[in-house]
Amino acid sequence: MSFIHRFIDQLSELTGRVLAWLSLLMMVLLCLVVILRYGFEIGSIGLQEGVTYLHASIFMLGAAYTLKHDGHVRVDIFYRNFSPRSKAWINSLGGIIFLLPLCVYIFFISWDFVLQSWAIGEVSTEPGGIPAVFLLKSLIPIMAINLGLQALADILRSALVLVEAAND
To answer: N or C: lower Cβ tally within 10 Å for the chain?
Structure first.
C-alpha cells in the first residue's frame, strides 16, 4: 500500500510542478494579449483561447496536486483539533463516501460528451480560434482520473495511519 500511495503522490507532485511552469506561460501569454490589444490594437482570438486552454489545464489537472497538499477548502473548525487517528478516519471515509464516487460520476458523465467532441473533431467557433476543443474537453475525464488516483493515495495513507495506530 505504501508503494502505491507514494507513486501516486510522486505523479501528482510532478504534474503540479509542470503546471506551475504552465501558469507562468499563461501569465506571459496574457500579458502579450494585453500589450498587443491595447498597445498595438492587434487582437488575436488564438492567443486569447490559448490563455483559456492553459487556465483550464492548470485548474483541471491541478486538482490532484492541490488535494495532495491539502489545499482544498474544508471546514476545519473541529478537524484541526482532532488526533491523527481521527483525521485519518475522516479523510478515509470522506474519500470513500464522497470523493471517489464523485470522480467516478464525473468520469462517466463526461465520457460521451468527450467522445462526441472527438468524433466530430470539434473546433473553436471563433475565426482564428484554436481548432482543438476536443482536447480541452478531454481534460474533464483526465481530471476525474487524476483526482480519483490522488483520493486513493490519501485513503491508503490514512489506512496506514489507522493500522499503525491499531498496532500501538
So the answer is: C
Which residue is associated with the grid cell 500589450?
Answer: 35
Q: How far is CA 117 from CA 34, 132, 138, 139, in A?
A: 31, 9, 9, 12
**Residue 52: closest CA among 124, 117, 154, 155:** 124
State the SS3 of 128-164: CCCCCHHHHHHHHHHHHHHHHHHHHHHHHHHHHHHHH
The whole-angstrom separation of Cα 75 and Cα 83 is 16
Q: What's the whole-model pTM score?
A: 0.88
User: Within the chain, which residues score under 50 in pLDDT?
Assistant: none
Amino acid at 100: L
